[in-house]
Amino acid sequence: MKLTISLIKADIGSIGGHTRPSQAMLDLVKNQLEEAKNNLIIDFYTYFIGDDIGLLMTHTHGKNSSVIHNFAWQVFQNAAQIAAEQGLYAAGQDLIADAPSGNVRGAGPGVAELEVEFSSKRPVESFMMFAADKCGPGIFNLPLYLTFADPMYCAGLMLPNMLQGFDFNIIDMNDHEGKNINLKSPVDLYKIAILLRDTDRFGISEIVSNKFNLPAAAVSTDRLHTISGKYVGKDDPVALVRTQGIFPAAEEVIGPWYKAQIVGGGARGSHNLPIVPMPVNSPVTGFYCLPIVCCLAFSLNKHGMLTEAVDMFASPVWDQVRLDAQRKAIDMRNQGFFGAAMLPESELEYGEYRVVLKDLLAKFSK
Question: Active-site positions?
Fold first, then answer.
């Protein structure tokens, strides 16, 4: 039986600013997913990271299923209604369209989906879900590149099942039609690097095993300002990554996150700041809304049932990384609004900034 793992998230309102959803919203989401279990979906897990609510669902409807996506949309709409009633900030922010057309891709919520099937090549299924807040989809470029293309970070790449490398599907996130290119590692390694270095424009949408032609990872790559034509919030991406056996081990997948890489995002989505690995269900309470990411590991049985989650960033071993990220953030914020501390004008999410700049430019004279 072919199973689908769907991870769909949205920012639909939060307490006192961009902090976290209310408990009433989270209770409603969990109750609605519980009602859908054994009917529409097989199993589920709900979480929040920062002000985003995520739905992890297993089912047999396949990727881009209109019935699954429309269900998620309705759940988010209902939770957004509670946010509005409670007077929460940015209620329904990510629900850009009036209604999704077939599925929620391009309507605001972020989506990552994998289809899995048990076989002799893959007798057991283990995977990780990542979810980030206050940042764009390009945050996965470096960690996934290091995991699936660099043996310095993933020694498993030297083993027979991974020696042929992985196929990277890279999307132009500025293109409304979602144009993409497929490049194979290791033969196209440098070409992959050329594209992935530009995290504001190019992002990984899927990674596939070259030897087995099986999906290894899926990432949400929608950019809200490309969809809506204006800034309505940062993209806050999610990702699914299969682990062990013919894929990198769990420790090889989370290893690159110790770098606390500098990414675009933070306060008003307009700054360059380090991304901090945090436990799941963490509110955004750091200064200047530091970008944060969580990671949960699951096993999945042949009937589509999930085990309990293992929170991969909850361990004290990540405390030093969190402190290092804070130090990097302080150094960056000490530069204020000058130069590299903020995003370039093309990516700056202060919409009113362009209004002021346009007015000033009109007053320039020879």
Answer: 11, 231, 234
